[in-house]
Design brief:
single chain; mainly beta; eight-stranded mixed sheet; two-stranded antiparallel ribbon; 10 strands; 31% strand; globular; disordered N terminus
């Protein structure tokens, strides 16, 4: 598997301003509502990969879908599309699993009205456990809210991979997708993902 660093010039391409807390005002990259649906969320061709500081979780990035503002390790500014919502949810989970991301930076990824008391933390409590996203399903999509189901393999040396599924809702707020459910709902992964993420061998 190959993890690709963010290209130069990617980090600030989708932001028009940033407030004192670090919350970005994003350039609204919107696709007309009649051109998108939950059935149209294919994996973007420009997808790259990043990993958390301890390599506990590996998650996707896209220059066309987001994050388009990522000065450090917590990304903001996603396309106003179903796949933009998916990538916002996945990068939110990645930020929570990354020790380099502060709590205040995580707060900028949530809707303003959301309580920050029960932030979701992926099950990567030991240094040997690795969580790898493998696919996603867009369960519902409106122009102002989306519900996505993210599939991941929990990998531990000497044990079989365990397939997990996490449900997250994101809301379109201030020109960006923001997480509405900080405590992601873990579900049984009986069904297959609607779309599979493609890995490149190293």
């Amino acid at each position: 598997m190959t993890v690709t660093p963010l290209p130069a010039g990617w980090r600030t391409s989708g932001v028009s301003s940033v407030d004192s807390s670090g919350r970005a005002k994003c350039v609204d990259i919107t696709v007309p509502a009649d051109k998108v649906s939950s059935d149209q969320a294919p994996v973007p061709s420009d997808m790259a990969w990043d990993t958390t500081a301890n390599s506990a979780l590996t998650f996707p990035l896209s220059r066309s879908q987001g994050p388009m503002y990522r000065p450090k390790f917590a990304g903001q500014c996603y396309a106003h599309t179903p796949i933009g919502a998916v990538f916002a949810a996945m990068n939110y989970m990645g930020s929570l699993a990354d020790g380099r991301v502060s709590r205040s930076e995580v707060a900028n990824l949530l809707v303003k009205s959301e309580s920050h008391a029960n932030l979701f933390v992926p099950p990567t409590g030991t240094s040997d456990l690795r969580l790898r996203f493998i696919g996603y399903t867009v369960e519902s999509y409106l122009t102002d809210e989306a519900k996505v189901l993210i599939y991941a393999y929990a990998q531990e040396p000497g044990a079989r991979d365990n397939l997990l599924a996490f449900e997250l809702s994101v809301v379109w707020e201030d020109g960006d997708w923001k997480a509405k459910t900080p405590a992601a709902q873990r579900r049984s992964a009986k069904d297959k993902p609607q779309y599979y993420l493609k890995w490149k061998s190293s």
